[in-house]
Design goal:
The complex is a heterodimer. By secondary structure, chain A is α+β, with helices and mostly antiparallel strands. Chain A is built from three helices and eleven strands, in the order E-E-E-H-E-E-E-E-E-H-E-E-E-H. The longest helix of chain A is centred in the last third of the chain and has 16 residues. Among the domains of chain B are: about 210 residues, Gyrase A, domain 2; about 130 residues, Gyrase A, domain 2. The chains are: A alpha+beta, B alpha+beta. Chains A and B meet through strand 7 and helix 3 of A and strand 8, strand 36 and helix 20 of B.
């Protein structure tokens, strides 16, 4: 892509650092929605293993539902055409941004608006959920480190909500 | 004793005096006092005026069941809180509290005239009296009643405080930290359970706080619980509601007890999901029902003990007790021990344990068995009481300044009932107790009916020689309901307690019958001569005690009220003076006024620019769905009205989407990118609805189809370039796409790059001009936009907003679903039958299009309207009549759906839905508007370039 044209992000590139938790914008990623009748069909098209258990993550691919996976990667993935296989790959790289929520109070921050029980949410797990009324995908990257994927138009609201909750 | 403050005792910190004010007068209390205890210590007995009769009222209880002493606290501008219970307000330096529902002052209240006229205000008075004339209700009766009957003033300024909110999960939630709740926590503490212990007071202990013998145990327990890593203690926190699946709402009060307003949250809403819930809410003492039982100085016996033992306050200097229960005797013994002077104990019973009588005798207390209080003297404070023998009504007068009542105990089953746990009646205590749980929950301690207060007798109204219809014996103190009101309701034919409650207001509103429910039931039971269990029990509703709107709204105010969705180009629009409008959740640029321009001037200029050179428009909010899979074409063929299977890759088609009922629900232009890949567009507001509808069909009707839907609305920023110079502007910036008319015709899509950024380039037009819609990855939307603005300067490129877009599309006869349709419009009604595939065997809504009503004549149909006076722009929504001379009310045959001034045409244009409109071409219709009835000719809907010459260039 042209270096001459700038990316315009919906939230500040300066992290918000509060007591015990920081919130920052992750670097751009390629993102793909992977849909398939069976995991095997998807593996054939991707020529890679995909996790079979909902919520599990493997090689940057999270299984979000019975026929839905979410791939996040640095590299571009070809969108195969007319494979005849029951598989659909859609480029959603710029649909969302990723906020990195990090620190000993990271789970506490998410719990201010997300009804999940993070004591029972293992590292490596990914799920689509909500923060108050806004849909997000949470990926637990580490004990104290979460990736929160949010659609771009909701990102400014979520950033404001996170930073407000972090300051409390 | 100094004043009413006892020399010793209590948990207050006597080394820390606290200055505060009540009704503008300065007072002093101690750290640890509530407003109630501090004012009682200062000899204050009058706290407020009652809801309906404006009767003087004092403190009745010591906890959150207090029905009388509702006060307001003013913490500065916008920080005014009405209707707080004085028993729950902790004093702090500078506390500024006020009494309520009185004018001009608490002691001299004009509204007290209601009390004299009480006989004219029986139960159901409002319903009976103020019905006619009907028109008087809103203007006269209701405002007058609201002024007279009421609680504190509602705040009028914006609340500057902030409120926090969180979810929490635990294995065990304990509500109530009295001895039973603390025991439950101690018992579970050693497990690996996550425990949350909630209590509404400022410190743990509940009833134990009024029992000095338990303080050493309490301190040990408190330390143990604080040290336990798996126990979270939330004091000053009220569990106000119990919802499905052990979901409990609680509000924690964080700063109200502190002297200064702070920037940290005032309250925090806890939304707790618990594995198991243990309710240890305790029991509430029941008042006794007798004439004058609401006089200031008459209070619950247990409250007097709390004030003495916890706060070191004597509620009076000469105290009498009216009791029907052993617990009153124990309270009086404790008061004697604390140094409070006891004048007499009157017990309605004839027989009771000799231990109580012996102890009373030992303490030198006068005892009257088989006696009742029949009257209370004193207006702002008890001065004496009348008592009578229950059998011969021989009476006596006892001088005292305080009368305690002990009517037995009511287990607090509010939260249990929220959870739909069942209740069982216990005759021995005259109360309902928890029975079968509906959730994983149990009750412990006094709220389960298990207590050691001794026994008592259940009396509905104390015996009296007085005419029962002339006495004021209160049942519900907060709602001013007397025993005779309940009896009146029964006489007037009400049989169920649900109806009696609503007719009399007993147990309603913020109080939720904490002190009144059981007495009300007993009185109704006697009046109906039926057992209590036969007349039902009213529902307890959340909240247990009133909570602030602020806590419930939490973050959802100001910028966080609701997400306002913005596009990648929104910032540019804001910087360039756009006037915005909200479309669904989106903020969209409506027009871009230049210096001095009003909306019409700006819109006219923007429209002319598009028609004469080139306009640029942010269309990013259009809904987009990527439909991918081997069965993609088959799926769309079934969803849309028109054929999709034969559409070639690289071409676009207008898609019309119906609901099952045959009515238009959405439309949009969609493109086939590959045999198994489509790029759909929907309306801005319809994006989520259309995706849901398609998913619904896919998952429930055709799960066999191998096709998947992905929302790509936010994957692409969309820039519409429209106008005769659009191609010229685009050509040097695009690579990999031949833009020539032959290679890239109208209604086609190509993939390539623009300014080096990958693009899905549509050649489509919603304006009737040569047009392109540039889809680029969203992050680059603004950069590409700015590049086009810079390069387009030589064509005088003009940004335009949604208003000009509306005008331009109307000139071309393009409808907007939701504006020109209303959910009852078929493709035929809208003149879009060309888009409904006649040969297709089926599509969503096809069957409904043959329904008799759908093919009947006289349906409302979409037509164009041209006003006789070209300068008149009709009002959107204006009604249409066929004959303006018909008598009023006229028959309205339709309405104007879209109406604009068209600068291009030099006249106004409009669309309208008109009954049988398609048959009226060339006819005249009439549109009555303020001041004048306008005449308009029915026309086709395409007002400009009907042959489409400007498109195909």
């Amino acid at each position: 892509m042209s270096d001459a044209l700038f990316r315009n992000e919906p939230v500040s590139s300066t992290p918000c650092v509060a007591d015990g938790v920081s919130i920052s914008l992750a670097a751009p990623l390629k993102r793909y929605s992977l849909r398939a009748r069976t995991a095997e069909a998807l593996e054939t098209v991707l020529n890679a293993k995909v996790p079979q258990k909902i919520g599990a993550t493997e090689g940057g691919i999270a299984c979000l539902g019975p026929d839905e996976w979410f791939l996040r990667t640095a590299a571009e993935t070809a969108m195969p055409t007319d494979t005849g296989l029951p598989v659909a790959i859609t480029d959603i790289s710029e649909r969302s941004i990723c906020l990195v929520v990090e620190g000993p109070r990271a789970a506490e921050l998410l719990m201010t608006g997300c009804p999940l029980d993070f004591d029972n949410f293992a590292v490596g797990r990914a799920t689509r959920t909500i923060y108050e009324t806004v849909e997000i995908i949470i990926i637990r990257e580490g004990e104290d480190r979460f990736h929160v994927e949010v659609w771009r138009s909701f990102a400014a609201w979520l950033w404001t909500a996170f930073t407000a909750a972090a300051s409390h | 004793m100094s004043g009413y403050r006892l020399e010793n005792g209590g948990r207050i910190d006597r080394s820390r005096p606290v200055e505060f004010s009540f009704d503008g007068n300065p007072y002093q209390g101690f750290a640890g006092d509530t407003l109630a205890s501090a004012l009682l210590a200062n000899g204050i007995s009058l706290f407020g005026r009652s809801f309906k009769y404006h009767r003087p009222r004092g403190i009745m209880a010591a906890g959150s069941e207090e029905p009388n002493a509702l006060i307001s606290v003013d913490r500065g501008a916008g920080r005014f809180t009405p209707n707080l219970r004085a028993t729950g307000v902790e004093i702090h330096a500078g506390l500024n509290a006020f009494s309520q529902n009185r004018w001009p002052s608490l002691k001299r209240d004009f509204g007290a005239i209601n009390d004299r006229l009480g006989m004219f205000f029986p139960a159901g008075f409002y319903n009976k009296t103020f019905m006619w004339p009907r028109s008087f209700w809103e203007k006269l009766y209701e405002p007058a009643i609201r002024k007279m009957a009421g609680l504190g003033d509602a705040p009028t300024q914006e609340d500057p405080d902030i409120y926090a909110s969180t979810y929490a999960h635990c294995d065990l939630l304990i509500v109530g930290a009295g001895p039973a709740g603390i025991d439950a926590a101690l018992e579970a503490m050693g497990s690996n359970k996550r425990i949350i212990l909630i209590d509404e007071q400022d410190e743990l202990g509940g009833g134990a706080l009024a029992d000095p013998a338990l303080w050493p145990w309490l301190e040990r327990s408190r330390k143990a619980l604080i040290d336990a890593p798996n126990v979270t203690i939330l004091t000053r926190t009220t569990a106000f509601g119990y919802y499905h699946d052990n979901f409990i709402g609680a509000v924690q009060r964080l700063t109200d007890h502190m002297p200064n307003n702070s920037d940290s949250p005032r309250e925090k809403l806890w939304r707790v999901r618990a594995g198991e819930v243990v309710l240890a809410q305790g029991a509430i003492e029941r008042p006794l029902v007798f004439d004058g039982n609401d006089t200031p100085g008459v209070m619950l016996s247990s409250a007097a003990k709390v004030f003495a033992n916890r706060f070191g306050v004597a509620v009076g200097t000469s105290v009498a007790l009216m009791t029907a229960h052993d617990s009153g005797w124990h309270d009086v013994f404790a008061l004697v021990k604390a140094g409070v002077g006891i004048k007499a104990v009157i017990d309605v019973r004839t027989e009771l344990s000799s231990a109580l009588l012996d102890e009373a005798s030992r303490l030198g207390i006068n005892v009257y068995l088989n006696h009742s209080v029949t009257g209370v003297n004193g207006r702002h404070r008890v001065t004496s009481i009348q008592i009578c023998n229950n059998d011969d009504f021989v009476g006596a007068r006892i001088d005292c300044d305080t009368l305690l009542m002990a009517g037995g105990w009511t287990p607090s089953v509010h939260l249990w009932s929220h959870s739909k746990g069942s209740l069982a009646w216990r005759d021995d205590i005259g109360a309902y107790v928890p029975d079968q749980p509906n959730e994983n929950a149990r009750c412990v301690g006094a709220c389960s009916g298990g207590w050691d207060f001794g026994s008592g007798m259940i009396v509905d109204v104390l015996p009296t020689p007085k005419d029962q219809s002339r006495i004021k014996a209160f049942v519900d103190f907060q709602n001013d309901v007397t025993a005779k009101d309940i009896k009146l309701a029964v006489r007037e034919g009400f049989r169920s307690i649900e109806h009696i409650k609503r007719y009399t207001t007993n147990g309603m509103a913020t109080d939720q019958g904490k002190t009144s429910n059981l007495n009300g039931l007993q009185i109704a039971s006697t009046a109906l001569a039926k057992p209590v269990t036969d007349i039902g029990l009213t529902s307890f509703r959340p909240p247990y005690t009133p909570q602030t709107f602020g806590a419930l709204a939490a973050h959802a105010k100001g910028a966080l009220f609701q997400p306002t969705r913005t596009t990648n180009i929104d910032g540019w629009a804001a910087e360039n003076g756009a006037v915005f409008e909200l479309v669904a959740q989106w903020r969209r640029a409506r027009y871009f006024p230049k210096m001095g321009e009003d909306m019409h001037a700006a819109v006219n200029r923007e429209c002319v620019a598009v028609r004469s050179s080139v306009g640029i428009f942010d269309a990013s909010t259009l809904g987009k769905i990527e439909v991918v899979g081997p069965d993609a074409a088959e799926f769309l063929n079934r969803m849309y009205t028109n054929p999709w299977k034969a559409l070639e890759p690289g071409r676009c088609r207008y898609g019309l989407l119906l609901k099952e009922d045959g009515f238009i629900t959405d439309d949009g232009v969609s493109a086939r990118l590959a045999p198994d890949r489509f790029h759909l567009t929907t309306t801005t507001g319809g994006a989520a609805r259309v995706l849901n509808m398609m998913e619904d069909y896919l998952q429930t009707e055709w799960p066999d189809l191998d096709v998947w839907l992905t929302s790509t609305t936010e994957q692409y920023a969309v820039i519409a370039l429209q106008g005769p110079n659009a191609r010229k502007l685009l050509e040097p910036l695009v690579e990999g796409i031949d833009l020539s008319a032959d290679a890239f015709p109208h209604m086609a899509i190509r993939e390539g790059t623009i300014c080096g950024i990958p693009t899905r380039l549509f050649r489509v037009s919603f304006t009737g001009e040569l047009g392109f819609e540039i889809n680029v990855p969203t992050a680059y939307g603004r950069a590409v936009w700015e590049h086009l603005m810079a390069e387009g300067a030589k064509f005088d490129i003009t940004p335009y907003g949604t208003e000009a877009m509306h005008v331009l599309r109307a000139e071309k006869g393009f409808i907007i679903v939701g504006q020109d349709t209303d959910g009852t419009i078929t493709p035929f009604d809208a003149g879009l039958d060309w888009a409904a595939g006649k040969k297709k065997p089926d599509f969503v809504g096809k069957r409904s299009m043959a329904r008799p009503d759908i093919v009947a004549p006289g349906r409302k149909q979409l037509v164009g309207l041209l006003t006789d006076d070209p300068n008149v722009v009709l009002e959107e929504g204006a009604q249409i009549v066929a004959d303006p001379r018909q008598p009023i009310p006229m028959t309205m045959i339709g309405h104007v759906t879209s109406s604009y001034w068209s600068e291009t045409l030099g006249r106004s244009i409009a669309f309208a839905l008109v009954a049988g409109g398609h048959e009226m071409m060339g006819g005249m219709l009439y549109i009555p508007m303020p001041g004048k009835t306008h005449e308009a000719k029915v026309s086709g809907m395409v007002f400009y370039d009907a042959e489409g010459a400007r498109l195909h260039v």
